[in-house]
Amino acid sequence: MTPKLESDAAASSYAAEASARSKHRARLKARGVVWASWVIIAILLVVGMHVLNAAAGNLVMPRPAAVLQQAMVMWGDGTIPHALGESLTVLGLGFLLASTTGILVGIILGGFPFLGRVLDPFVNAMNSTPGAAFIPLIIVWFGLYTEAKVVLVWNAAVFPILINTTAGIANANRELTEMAQSFGAGRRVLFWQVMVPDALPSILSGLRIGAAISIVGTVIAELTMAQSGLGGLLVAAGNRFQMDRYFAVVIVLMVLGTLITGALRVAERRLARWRFSSQADGRSE
């Protein structure tokens, strides 16, 4: 290698390293800004609670210190852990059932356009009907306990997952689909190696929406049926005007929703790498 080529290679390597360091510093700076923003927002919320408590009293807004103290008591005596376990059982079973049925039916409806067109009006009709309209029917069919609550959560969460999955499969990359078909790919290969990887962003978006709705559905189920779990604690605290206990439970629900959404985002990033590698393998073949 000539001196000039060696110099150009060294300069190119140095430029690549400098660019990588610059991008790393930019990511760290952006992360720091995000964390600082979260801290500022949390401080503003606490200050706002103090101001509203001073202006309107404990009935409207409890003091943050009282909420924290009550949360420690409820965690310590097992009230929140027991209720959280009940709510997570209903939430987990309902969301798992909604995810399974929503993704499988969405793949079928998106992969078979004629079937999708036939069933689309019925899916939209069910999705546009308020979930509360089904509560009396669910109670008659399944009772007031865990089974009925799981069905209510499933009914609330399944349609966003199903609709997003159907749209993602139906709008899969036509070039990749036609290329796979031209090489003799069967329906199963077309689904799992081309259409499903390309539809992953839409599917995961539906799962995030479904997870948020599942939490809401769980609370509604626990409010309207046999009162238990976190929803039951909300009813008990609200009926007694114990706003410090009420807000302690609300904070648990907020943290639960944040953790579930964060877990789904981590899964989305990991599955995105599988999606790109799967599509690259499909192109190479």
TrEMBL record:
ABC transmembrane type-1 domain location: 84-264
PROSITE patterns, per the entry: ABC_TM1
Location in the cell: Cell membrane
Keyword Transport included in the entry's annotation: yes
Pfam family, one: BPD_transp_1
InterPro entries noted in UniProt: MetI-like, MetI-like_sf
GO cellular component, one term: plasma membrane
Record protein name field: ABC transporter permease
Organism taxonomic ancestry: Bacteria, Pseudomonadati, Pseudomonadota, Alphaproteobacteria, Rhodobacterales
